[in-house]
Amino acid sequence: MVGFKPTEVPPTATVKFLGAGTAACIADLITFPLDTAKVRLQIQGESQGAIRTSSTGAQYRGVMGTILTMVKTEGPGSLYNGLVAGLQRQMSFASVRIGLYDSVKQFYTKGSEHAGIGSRLLAGCTTGALAVGVAQPTDVVKVRFQAQARAGGSRRYQGTMDAYKTIAREEGLRGLWKGTSPNVARNAIVNCAELVTYDLIKDALLKAHLMTDDLPCHFTSAFGAGFCTTIIASPVDVVKTRYMNSASGQYASAGHCALTMLRKEGPQAFYKGFMPSFLRLGSWNVVMFVTYEQLKRALMAARASREAPF
């Protein structure tokens, strides 16, 4: 057995909630430069009406090309633009969409141990949509920070709190909830693809006795979930990023944004940044799920140790 052993008592909802948020923050710290590169590639080709992206005029080519160009023109710190908002987002967002997934799944199955794919999909959609309702402003600020370039002019936002205040002042409170509809769609899809795929792959590996419930099983399941999620969610993710980063009035709606992309840039625009998306989601899923599984066991072991009589 690699890592912490499974505990006899299943993890509580509180342990899952805290463990999911913490694991997601750790995963974000490690993979954030890939996410920033993905955002820059996704908004490349957007009209000048968007919120200022790259004042350097740099063109991005591929994952490593984007990262190297950003480091050269803006400095290494640019890869972590929006990190504070990103961590705020994960602590509130992942805690809900991942931490509450098992509880909501049990609700839909009425406590039954056997959960069909329908119950899993419903649980994934529910927690994904709920999480957006909680964390949308943090996502808007994160995307804006990742999109803005540092070189060649003053920065639009001077800090995380300044970004919240500036967006609320210039665009109203609705500005902080910009892109909610595509984000709900994206995260319902992502949650279903990510959590349900992880759930199904893990169950299949355990039932076939190909692996035991430890790190290699969690790693394999998480990598498969990341690949499936990227293929399914990329088009909605690109639209969400473009719409959130757009200037007020540039697009009438998320649907208008999608149609404008299709007309001006063709269908391939919906898969812009696919490789960094996969590298980011694949690595993020591996780090997050492996950390999450170990945190749940560690927290429950610590709780059992504390409650055990001397």
Automatic annotation (TrEMBL):
Listed GO biological process terms: adaptive thermogenesis; cellular response to glucose stimulus; glutamine metabolic process; glycolytic process; long-chain fatty acid transport; macrophage differentiation; mitochondrial fission; mitochondrial transmembrane transport
InterPro entries in alphabetical order: MCP (IPR002067), MCP_dom_sf (IPR023395), MCP_transmembrane (IPR018108), Mito_Metabolite_Transporter (IPR050391)
Membrane topology: Multi-pass membrane protein
GO molecular function annotations of the record: antiporter activity; chloride transmembrane transporter activity; GDP binding; L-aspartate transmembrane transporter activity; malate transmembrane transporter activity; oxaloacetate transmembrane transporter activity; oxidative phosphorylation uncoupler activity; phosphate ion uniporter activity
Solcar repeats: 11-107, 115-204, 213-298
Chief location of this protein within or outside the cell: mitochondrion
UniProt protein name: Uncoupling protein 2
Protein source organism: Monodelphis domestica
Name of the gene encoding the protein in the UniProt record: UCP2
